[in-house]
Amino acid sequence: MADVREAITRAHHEEWARVVAALARRFGDLDIAEEAAAEAFAAAVERWPSDGVPPNPGAWLTTTANRKAIDRIRRENKRDDKQQEARMLYDRSEPHGAGGAIDDERLRLIFTCCHPALATESRVALTLRMVGGLTVPEIARAFLVQENTMGRRITRAKTKIKAAGIPYRVPAAEELPARVSGVLAVLYLVFNEGYLASGPATDPVRHDLTAEAIRLTRLIRSLMPEDGEVAGLLALMLLTEARRPARVSASGELVSLDEQDRGAWDAALIAEGHRLVRERLASGMAPGRYQILAAINAVHTSARDVRDTDWSQILALYDQLVRLDGSPVVALNRAVAVAEIDGPEVALAAVDRLEDTLAGYHAYHVTRADLLRRLGRGQESRAAYDRAIELAGNTAEIAYLTRRRDQLG
């Protein structure tokens, strides 16, 4: 029984986006695609324990989902309308009469979910649901909003796609530059959800999501090889993913960067990430946000030992990033570098100025707890750890923070 549950979980991680994308392509309706996919997985939960796991779970799920979708359309007695609508969307998806630059259903799906007719927050939420397969509660935690608010946001986005007749396709070459930035933002958030999963019932690190984000970013890079931010995001993901083998201990606890076994890092991913960063530097073009973040990670992964980290270079890169992105999260991360250069007291003053905007963000309290700890202010540090634990959703991080708090006595 445990093996079947594991197989269903693995199938959901690996096949959800494929099933939804295939149904969206066929029926031209995201609601039908999502609901039929969900029903197919529910059928797997019911039938696989007795029937056994099928040899090809993805094919079984897609076939079952297609039947569920057709059954729903028949029940609604709107089959002709739905087929006509799907045909119209399909016809417009290939305006030049030939296949798209990349024939991948999931890439078509992500460009549909990231259409500029949708608000940015809706694009991200819809893609996390439709492509990433995250639940509404998981997405709500990622955005620090209520579940019902996030549910309405996703519903409105799907309704707008249907009402506006947004086509299910990879944009034409002339449209790509204007469209790609929204896609990159979505992919970065999908990657981050995998890198530090927010759901208490999920694995603390979801390699399926990080791998999917990297795969799709590689596809977009092949489509736009000269785009610096696409290359920057890919480099950032690779350098972050390279550290994954050392991020969670055998006991299931998050391992901080300064405590990680650097010998366990993926040398091939680091080499590829560094090469991309060097290529962007050699281009002479002004770097964008993702390129700077990738450069920061390149500095971290260049140090053989944490004591060799070039914090002056990292702080200089954050100063450059602040000019492009003055968000409080960037300011918080910059403060970590400030602590290494100017000391924890100066950094704490900078962090405390962010309280009004980041009071509900667990990483704010984690950073405060660490700085207060270094300053010997144990009682305040413990209170900050308590608040961070309360807000954190990742099981491995909660275990790490709890140990750090309890060490204070």
Automatic annotation (TrEMBL):
<dbReference type="Pfam" id="PF20239">
    <property type="entry name" value="DUF6596"/>
</dbReference>
<dbReference type="GO" id="GO:0003677">
    <property type="term" value="F:DNA binding"/>
</dbReference>
<feature type="domain" description="RNA polymerase sigma-70 region 2">
    <location>
        <begin position="18"/>
        <end position="78"/>
    </location>
</feature>
<keyword id="KW-0804">Transcription</keyword>
<dbReference type="InterPro" id="IPR011990">
    <property type="entry name" value="TPR-like_helical_dom_sf"/>
</dbReference>
<dbReference type="InterPro" id="IPR013324">
    <property type="entry name" value="RNA_pol_sigma_r3/r4-like"/>
</dbReference>
<feature type="domain" description="RNA polymerase sigma factor 70 region 4 type 2">
    <location>
        <begin position="110"/>
        <end position="161"/>
    </location>
</feature>
<dbReference type="InterPro" id="IPR036388">
    <property type="entry name" value="WH-like_DNA-bd_sf"/>
</dbReference>
<dbReference type="Pfam" id="PF08281">
    <property type="entry name" value="Sigma70_r4_2"/>
</dbReference>
<dbReference type="GO" id="GO:0016987">
    <property type="term" value="F:sigma factor activity"/>
</dbReference>
<dbReference type="InterPro" id="IPR007627">
    <property type="entry name" value="RNA_pol_sigma70_r2"/>
</dbReference>
<comment type="similarity">
    <text>Belongs to the sigma-70 factor family. ECF subfamily.</text>
</comment>
<dbReference type="Pfam" id="PF04542">
    <property type="entry name" value="Sigma70_r2"/>
</dbReference>
<dbReference type="InterPro" id="IPR013249">
    <property type="entry name" value="RNA_pol_sigma70_r4_t2"/>
</dbReference>
<dbReference type="GO" id="GO:0006352">
    <property type="term" value="P:DNA-templated transcription initiation"/>
</dbReference>
<dbReference type="InterPro" id="IPR046531">
    <property type="entry name" value="DUF6596"/>
</dbReference>
<protein>
    <submittedName>
        <fullName>RNA polymerase ECF family sigma subunit</fullName>
    </submittedName>
</protein>
<keyword id="KW-0731">Sigma factor</keyword>
<feature type="domain" description="DUF6596">
    <location>
        <begin position="179"/>
        <end position="279"/>
    </location>
</feature>
<keyword id="KW-0805">Transcription regulation</keyword>
<dbReference type="InterPro" id="IPR013325">
    <property type="entry name" value="RNA_pol_sigma_r2"/>
</dbReference>
